[in-house]
Amino acid sequence: MDNFPSSSGTRSVGQRLIDVLAASDAVRASVAYAQALGVAVNVAVVDVSGVQVAFLRMPGAPLHSIDIAIDKAYTAASFGLATSQWHKVLQEHSPAVREGLVLRPRFVAFGGGLPILENGLRIGGIGVSGGSEQEDEAIAQAGLKAIGLA
């Protein structure tokens, strides 16, 4: 029975993962915040292994932003780092790493993706795309705040 959504926002299948109920709440809260800002976005939540758990596309959100939102969530979940931090982090590495990492499929190095942490453990990632980098990150943060993980 441990694979069913729990009231804590996570489920366990050998590791802690964000559950579908918490992921759905996060994307809905993100969309509500985006509506208040007047921005049409796509919002994705993935679990810690990068598997998509929830997604919403607002009417009028850019089509290319669908994959970008998903990839922001994937990048944040896989590294445990906000995608907005990558520009600074990459400056600390060799040119080969700086140039090579950004060419990796699904890697996003600009704002809008946040890791989802519960009690210091990474359980997933949320990605938003369609606004400015700052708007996307604030919208993602609103989703995390709504589920008590901001």
From TrEMBL:
Superkingdom of source: Bacteria
Natural source organism: Simplicispira metamorpha
SUPFAM superfamilies: GlcG-like
Name by which UniProt lists this protein: Uncharacterized protein GlcG (DUF336 family)
Classification via InterPro entries: GlcG_carb_metab_protein, PduO/GlcC-like, PduO/GlcC-like_sf
Pfam families linked to this entry: HbpS-like
